[in-house]
Each structure stands twice: as structure tokens, then as C-alpha cells.
Write a structure and sequence with these properties.
The chain is mostly helical. It is about 60% helix and about 0% strand. The chain is built from 16 helices and two strands. It has a two-stranded antiparallel ribbon with strand order 1-2. Helix 9 packs across helix 11.
């Protein structure tokens, strides 16, 4: 196919071998002058085209205004035509006037309150449309002021008709000049005519979103293998290598501990997954649309994060939200198991109402949620019973027993001490000790007093288990201090009841002797 080089004929060159200059002018200067001449003519042509376009647009605005002014002066204006209030000739105060009064009123109105509207050009001190109309009306007035008053109105209308007929003719001439300038401009190819036809750009795809923080990694852990060379020395104790190996093993142990801590971190919900988890149950279309709009949903660890959120919600008593999390987690698992195009395949079956796929998925959701409920109940019960600190009384020696010496009342007034070893005891000190024991016993809560009177270690431990740790420690301290709790036989025992019985028996015997 022959090549067409005709478009290169429009190139305008400032340097050509055919150019013949003056022998006294060097070629470089000639080329620069020609280049400057080309750019000056090109810029002048652009300004001429812009001026012609602005003048034509201005004439298109002035022509209908002059026609309306002529109609109103002659009293031929149509009252039903659509009018605007932008121009002076369309205002309310001139619609009832005609003839010379209207002409005089328009001139005065244009001089005192002209409209700021003007042609959209960058020219400095651009004249407004009202100023142009005023200039024309004043020119017409100067032409007709020599006529008598009765003929002046007719002369004004005649002058307006002449200008209205000349304006379109002048506009047509301007349009021809504009066409000629544009045609001359298109004869030459310039840098402004270069346009980008098409361009091929490589837009890299968006990077895949990162997996959920704390999600189990699919890649196997890297195990570092090190080779240690041991040198045999004469004095192992003084060698620095002996201390280097424990340090190395310590650092490796710390690294392994850090890896274990990282593995124990549970995956957490991201803000996008939180929105995804609150979608209604069995609304497959909403879930499919959400996944299409947010790639961050279908990432590694998202399913595990939703299951963790379901367990926590069930423990907090939010059963509905827990089931929603289970539903969305299994939805992602099914999409992942169906392969590369699993999202489309899964939702196509669910939205289409596949009678085999839907029951399987529904049963899996119900079973998984039931398992979450069971695990939440077990966790709640274990936390209630297994994590509360308690105080319990246990003898150190399995053969020893713990007994409780519970007072029956305060010491009597005629307290007497009998038995071997009581001769050296001060009866007042014994009285104070027994009084303090009774007061401390009376200060105990009623369940503890009942358990102490029962005398069994199991009953007392049961009451202590229901107390706070600080309260139970105070009770045990008082039991030990007052002697109510005994770990072995011996010591002071409360024989108040026996003393009272002996005293009463002696009194009865004396009375009978009398």
C-alpha cells in the first residue's frame, strides 16, 4: 500500500535549504528572524480569531435587544412574550411607555443604573452591553435632534431600523473573516494541533489484603539448624566458651517463647469483618454483595476471627449475634473449600435455591452453633468454680485432728479453777481470756457459729469457702488466738459448763445436809 505524505506539506519550516538570504546576513540570523516572524503571525492570527468570535457573540446579544427597543418605541410589543428583567427595556416601569417618553426613559435608565453584564473577554476595561446600547441611542439622538418634535419619533424609528438591518450584515462579514482566519490557521501544523490519540498504560492490580492479625500461618515454621564446634581444652572451667553456650541456649529459648506467645494470640475482628458479621442470617445476596465490594473479608484467618467473636458473644449472652458470626464464618469456609472460584459457585447455589446444598449448610450452622453454646456454658461454669481463691483448714500431719472448743457462755462470777497445775494460774487473767473468747465467738456470723458448734472440720471449711479471702483469714486468726481452734490435746479448755454444774451440785448437797 503506498504511503501518503501529503500531511507533511502543512509543515511550516523556519530552516530550509531552499531559503536564499542576503550575502551580508548570516544564515543563523535569517533563520531566527523567520522563526520569530512565523510565531508573531501565528499569535496575531489567534488574537484576531478570538476578537472576531467575541464580536460575533456580542452582536448576537445586541440584535434582539435593539429589536425589542424598536417594538416598544413603536408600541408593537407583545404582552404575552417571555420577558426578562435583566435589561432596562424589559423592566416593569417601561412596559407602559412608548414613543419619545420611552426613549428618554431608557437613556436616563441606562445612564443612572446600568447592568454590569458584559462580553466574556479578557480585555481590559471591557464595555458593558448597556454602555453599547446607550452609545447607539445617543448617536441616534444626535442624528434626529434637528427634526421637529412631531417628526422626531419617526426619525428615531428610521435610524433604529437602519442599524438593526446593518448589524446582521456586519455579523455575516465578521463570520466570513473568521472562517478565512481559521482556514489559514489550519494550513499549517503546529504543536497545538498535536493530540494524544490513544495510550496504553499498565495499571497494576491492587495488592491482596493482609491476613487477620493472630491468624494461624499456613507456611511451616522455620527451624534454625546450627552447627556447634566444641574444642577440648586443658582447663575447661576457665574457658570462655563454657559460658557462651548457656547464653546461646538462653537466647534461643527466649526466641521460642516469643514464638509460642505469638501463636497463642487469638485472631481479632477488623472493622470490615465486624460489619460483615452483623449481616442478617440466610441473606446470601447481601453477603455476596458485601464480599464483592470488600476484598478484606475473604482473607486468611477471617473465619477463625468470626468463630472467636461468636464464642465471646455467646459467653456475654448475645445469642443472636453469636449465631450470625457462626453463619458468616462457615460461609467463608465453604467458599474457600470450593476452590479458586468458590465464592461464585457457593452463592450461585445458595441464591438459586439448591435443594441439596442449602440443607447441608443450614445443618452445619446449627451444629456449630450448638457446639459453641456447649463450650460457652462449660467455660462459664469452670470460671465460676475453679478460679475463686478460698481459705481451707487442713492439718499438716495426717494423723492429727483439728477440734473446736466452743464456749457455751461468759465465765460465771464465782469462777473456780480445779485440777492439777491450776494453782499457779491467775484467776483474773483466766476470766479475761474466757470473756474475750466469748466476745469473739459472738462476733462471728451465724452460719460460722452453727458450724463451730457442730464441731466438724467439713462444716467450718464450707462456711470459710463462701467468705472473701481477707475475711476468712481474719476468722482463722481469731480462732487460733482465742483458743477455739485446737490442733492438739492440752492447753486451756473451756470447762465453764462443768464448773457451773459442780457448783450447783455442791449447793444441793449442803442444803440436804442441813
Amino acid at each position: 500500500m503506498p504511503l501518503n505524505y501529503s500531511k507533511w506539506d502543512q509543515l511550516e519550516l523556519s530552516d530550509d535549504s531552499d531559503i536564499e538570504g542576503h550575502p551580508n546576513v548570516d544564515k543563523r540570523s535569517l533563520i531566527r528572524w523567520k522563526q520569530r516572524d512565523i510565531h508573531e503571525k501565528r499569535e496575531a492570527r489567534k488574537l484576531r480569531i478570538a476578537a472576531l468570535q467575541a464580536e460575533i457573540a456580542c452582536n448576537n446579544v445586541l440584535a434582539p435587544r435593539l429589536r425589542r427597543i424598536r417594538e416598544r418605541l413603536a408600541g408593537e410589543a407583545n404582552a404575552d412574550e417571555t420577558q426578562t428583567t435583566e435589561w432596562a427595556e424589559d423592566s416593569e416601569d417601561v412596559r407602559s411607555l412608548s414613543g419619545l417618553p420611552l426613549f428618554q426613559h431608557l437613556v436616563e435608565r441606562l445612564q443612572t443604573s446600568p447592568s454590569p453584564a458584559k462580553p466574556p473577554t479578557n480585555a481590559k476595561d471591557q464595555v458593558t452591553y448597556d454602555a453599547m446600547v446607550l452609545s447607539l441611542l445617543l448617536q441616534i439622538y444626535d442624528e434626529t435632534k434637528a427634526h421637529p418634535n412631531d417628526e422626531r419619533e419617526k426619525a428615531i424609528l428610521s435610524c433604529l431600523d437602519r442599524h438593526i438591518s446593518q448589524l446582521p450584515e456586519h455579523t455575516k462579514k465578521l463570520e466570513k473573516d473568521l472562517e478565512a482566519e481559521i482556514r489559514e490557521q489550519k494550513k499549517h501544523i503546529t504543536s497545538e494541533d498535536i493530540k494524544e490519540g490513544w495510550e496504553s498504560k499498565y495499571v497494576p492490580p491492587k495488592p491482596a489484603p493482609p491476613p487477620i492479625k493472630g491468624a494461624p500461618s499456613e507456611t511451616p515454621k522455620k527451624t534454625a539448624t546450627t552447627t556447634t564446634t566444641t574444642y577440648e581444652v586443658l582447663n575447661p572451667g576457665a574457658s570462655s566458651s563454657a559460658t557462651a553456650q548457656p547464653a546461646a541456649s538462653t537466647s534461643s529459648a527466649e526466641a521460642n517463647a516469643d514464638e509460642d506467645d505469638a501463636d497463642d494470640e487469638l485472631p481479632e475482628l477488623t472493622p470490615i469483618l465486624t460489619q460483615f458479621s452483623r449481616l442478617p442470617l440466610w441473606d446470601y445476596e447481601a453477603s455476596f454483595s458485601f464480599i464483592q465490594r470488600n476484598r478484606e473479608v475473604f482473607v486468611g484467618g477471617a473465619s477463625d476471627a468470626l468463630l472467636v467473636a461468636a464464642f465471646r458473644a455467646q459467653v456475654d449472652g448475645k445469642a443472636k449475634y453469636a449465631k450470625q458470626c457462626v453463619h458468616q464464618s462457615l460461609l467463608l469456609q465453604y467458599c474457600d473449600k470450593l476452590g479458586k472460584d468458590g465464592v461464585r459457585v457457593f452463592f450461585q447455589k445458595m441464591i438459586g435455591g439448591d435443594k441439596r446444598a442449602i440443607p447441608v449448610f443450614v445443618k452445619d450452622v446449627e451444629d456449630t452453633y450448638a457446639h459453641i453454646v456447649t463450650r460457652a456454658k462449660a467455660a462459664a461454669s469452670s470460671s465460676e468454680s475453679g478460679h475463686k481463691e478460698q481459705i481451707q483448714l487442713v492439718p499438716e500431719n495426717p494423723n492429727a485432728t483439728i477440734s473446736f472448743n466452743v464456749p457455751d457462755g461468759p465465765p460465771p462470777d464465782d469462777l473456780r479453777l480445779e485440777g492439777p497445775g491450776t494453782e499457779e494460774l491467775n484467776i483474773e487473767e483466766v476470766r479475761r481470756a474466757l470473756t474475750m473468747r466469748w466476745q469473739v465467738f459472738q462476733s462471728f456470723p451465724e452460719p460460722l457459729k452453727v458450724a463451730l458448734k457442730d464441731g466438724t472440720l467439713e462444716a467450718v471449711n464450707k462456711v470459710l469457702a463462701g467468705m472473701e479471702v481477707s475475711e476468712a483469714e481474719d476468722v482463722v486468726s481469731k480462732l487460733d488466738m482465742t483458743g477455739i481452734m485446737n490442733f492438739a490435746e492440752g492447753g486451756i479448755r473451756d470447762e465453764t459448763a462443768n464448773v457451773v454444774e459442780v457448783a450447783e451440785a455442791d449447793g444441793d448437797g449442803d442444803g440436804g445436809g442441813d
